[in-house]
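ABC transporter permease
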Amino acid sequence: MAVDVEPRRAAASDRPKAPSSALGRLLDSDLWWSFTRSPVTVTAAVVTLAYLLAALFAPLVTPQNPFDPASLVYADAFTPPAWTEDGMARYLLGTDDQGRDILSTLVYGARISLLVGFAAVLFSAVLGISLGILSGYVGGFVETLIMRTADIQLTVPGILIALMIDGVVRVQVGGEMDEKLAIMVLVVAIGISDWPKYARVTRGATLVERNKEYVQAARVIGIHPFLIMLRHILPNVMGPVLVIATIGLALAIISEATLSFLGVGMPPTTPSLGTLIRIGNNFLFSGEWWITFFPCLALVGLALSVNLLGDWLRDALNPKLR
């Protein structure tokens, strides 16, 4: 009896082909579907992208370079926003006590805050993930030492650890720090205070992964433990770490602003968001409200948008919440 295979072939040819490129797979994934179905997440992503692009191309999008003293007009200091009675059209958000354009300082300040935030998150994530995987895979005394150290550090507020590190460095250098050294100190201080949360999460995930068959098989064929941790365990514990890193970016930006506001972060000549808020706070009750209001608004918008992205990523990567 003859079998008609043509309909089967036609049906097979009508099936949609799986996307071959990485971009095609992303656009066809559940993650992208979840992202496009959330207007709040899309808005947060657009706001975050706007901050990143403005910070990246700050010299091209700002009317003034606040780092260049030659571009400052000290006679225009304390100019109110352009829409007020005494405002000037070239200063849309007004000027500060040095005649710097507030809009320009916000863009350059966001650049420094994002730089410190990304660097601090990268530093703390690398340190915490390394120690977490090591403690979870090796176990024994190494695990006890690392986890008890993390527990002790978690009992101390991160801001106090950052203040202590900043104070030790200032004593060693003998006073004020320049911009590059201040950025390095902030990155290390914030990173040191945040590594335990990465270590605890990766350690728990490693305890689950190390008992699975693929890890046992890698041990049997003689793969070095370092390569097992790097090639096999690390990719499988990165999901929760990405969520923590996204939310940690917002916390790192706020920590930088807090330290700069307290006077132990960036120097007054460097317009980070925290420094701008601290400078504007000195003139808040004398009527120059815009000097501190707009930096506060920029900081809240940046931290809120990054936090919303982190919340969406946590829900999207957790199958129990789908």
